[in-house]
Amino acid sequence: MNTPTQLAKHFREVFFGGNWTCSNLKDTLVDVSWQQATTQVHDINTIAILTYHMSYYVTAVLAVLQGAPLQAKDSESFSHPPISNHTDWLNMQEKVWADVEAFATLLEQLPESTLWENFTNEKYGSYFRNINGIIEHTHYHLGQIVLVKKLLQPPA
User: Fold this and answer.
1) Any idea what the CATH number is for the domain that residue 83 is in?
2) CA distance 90 to 44
3) How far is CA 86 from its chain centroid?
4) What is the pLDDT of residues 39-51, one digit of tens each?
């Protein structure tokens, strides 16, 4: 299995399952209501904010893989569209899953040599660094979501 295919597999696993951590975003969110997703616990980001934040970078890099320029600003990565009902929350998740699959599919088609080229600008490092960084970033925030989800559960 070549490197782009292996990265795409690892990328899909953190979102859809099958990784050795036995933790993934889709299964974690499956029983989270829109009210839970938007509930603030202490000063921790909400599940909806964290979900959007993770997907923000997927969407930005997906656009680059599709041939567009990089159009991302860290300052915008926590500002999700309003979620005021079940449909809004499901729509956000469906966009995440669709973008993840599109990203992984394009990643599988990426020539191996491209992984070692600069990602849009030398200051960002290689494609590999950025793709691997998104995977690490997702695992990090997935852990936060798991913790927030536990904090939202009523005491036993």
Assistant:
1) 1.20.120
2) 22
3) 20
4) 999 999 999 999 9
